[in-house]
Amino acid sequence: MKRVLLTGGTGMVGRNVAEHAAAADYELIAPDSRELDLRNQSAVDSYLLKLQPDIVIHAAGRVGGIQANIREPVVFLLDNLDMGRNIVGAARNAGVKRLINLGSSCMYPRETHNPIPEDAVLTGALEPTNEGYALAKIATARLCDYISKESPEYQYKTLLPCNLFGRHDKFDPRHSHMVPAIIHKLHQAKLSDAPQVDIWGDGTARREFMYSGDLADCIWQAVDRFDNLPSMMNVGLGHDLTVNEYYRAAADVIGYQGEFVHDLTKPVGMRQKMVDVSRASAWGWQAKTSIVEGLRLTYQYYIQEISK
Ligand SMILES: NC(=O)C1=CN([C@@H]2O[C@H](COP(=O)(O)OP(=O)(O)OC[C@H]3O[C@@H](n4cnc5c(N)ncnc54)[C@H](OP(=O)(O)O)[C@@H]3O)[C@@H](O)[C@H]2O)C=CC1
Ligand SMILES: C[C@H]1O[C@H](OP(=O)(O)OP(=O)(O)OC[C@H]2O[C@@H](n3cnc4c(=O)[nH]c(N)nc43)[C@H](O)[C@@H]2O)[C@@H](O)[C@@H](O)C1=O
């Protein structure tokens, strides 16, 4: 049975990977940050030398929404840089031949043609609101690429997911991305019978939010069909909605009937950030969960696990 080291196992992506049916076919090892702080290079080196996994899935990260990124660029840059270089460097030192690194659509330039192809990385200035995080993700993806080119027996590949939401997401507005924030705000407004809910910005920014269960499915397919997995591959829906449309779709799912008010003092980030999914389609993977079905499943999880 193949031994898989999963970093970030207690996070949203990591928990969806561990919950996926395919996990049963592997020996899955998923230390949390108390067992293995990925910022500690010597600890990571000795852990990998001892564990000798057949493949590493790097899904750990310092991750947050636009406000968290604006608030703490230093820790978003340093933590993700340290984690990325430590896990990738330790895997190579331990002779681990396969690694799947999670990048992000934030790696793409602020102004670029949408949908965004994988070779758009580093072709333009980054989005200022999450530049630190993006720089760390780009550096780690490039490190994987350089290692694979220098020593082809090492194949370290990067998946670039669009925005994500789903079970095990962060719903605290101080850290959350837009979709979990919407679910939290509309549920609380429904409970308190609040007449209106704030939308950050004018609501015309566009986003591609994919259900995290689908990313987990793609990751396990990548483990299973690793040899013909592209070295850089976007993972997304292939379509997007405006911020306003996400609020309206969530209001229908949650049953909130109040009004929306646009708070123009709030940051809005990139105008659009939709990834080109043609490489993933050619490789044989497509997302299965619609945004509305994803909202329904996530709201169900929120009610059962978060709001109780
Ligand atoms: N969420 C999204 O919209 C998107 C996420 N991604 C990428 O997907 C990956 C996972 O994101 P997501 O699941 O949402 O993130 P979460 O914040 O939900 O989880 C992050 C995980 O990383 C772990 N972690 C953080 N710091 C350390 C550390 N110092 N040592 C060891 N583990 C650490 C956390 O463990 P602990 O709880 O113990 O701190 C947690 O398990 C990241 O690489 C992110 O960049 C890409 C695109 C979109
Ligand atoms: C995933 C990827 O993308 C992240 O960047 P982002 O997409 O800008 O993050 P976001 O989901 O927080 O915002 C999306 C949009 O939504 C609008 N918006 C409306 N109302 C709320 C709201 O209530 N909360 C939030 N957070 N946003 C809101 C908000 O104004 C913005 O226009 C990186 O941080 C980084 O994590 C990264 O890798």
From TrEMBL:
Residues holding substrate: 185, 200, 207
Its EC number(s): 1.1.1.271
Coiled coil residues, start to end: none
Sites marked Important for catalytic activity: 104, 106
Iron keyword on record: no
Top-level class of the enzyme under EC nomenclature: oxidoreductase
Active site residues according to the UniProt entry: 133
Catalytic activity: GDP-beta-L-fucose + NADP(+) = GDP-4-dehydro-alpha-D-rhamnose + NADPH + H(+)
Keyword match Zinc-finger: no
Keywords from the named record: Isomerase, Multifunctional enzyme, NADP, Oxidoreductase
Leader sequence residues: none
Residue ranges of every copy of the NAD-dependent epimerase/dehydratase domain listed in the record: 4-236
Pathway: Nucleotide-sugar biosynthesis; GDP-L-fucose biosynthesis via de novo pathway; GDP-L-fucose from GDP-alpha-D-mannose: step 2/2
Entry-linked Pfam families: Epimerase
Binding site for NADP(+): 8-14, 102-105, 137, 161-164, 177
Family designation: Belongs to the NAD(P)-dependent epimerase/dehydratase family. Fucose synthase subfamily.
Cited function: Catalyzes the two-step NADP-dependent conversion of GDP-4-dehydro-6-deoxy-D-mannose to GDP-fucose, involving an epimerase and a reductase reaction.
Protein name as annotated: GDP-L-fucose synthase
Organism: Pelomonas candidula
Classification lineage: Bacteria, Pseudomonadati, Pseudomonadota, Betaproteobacteria, Burkholderiales
UniProt gene name: fcl
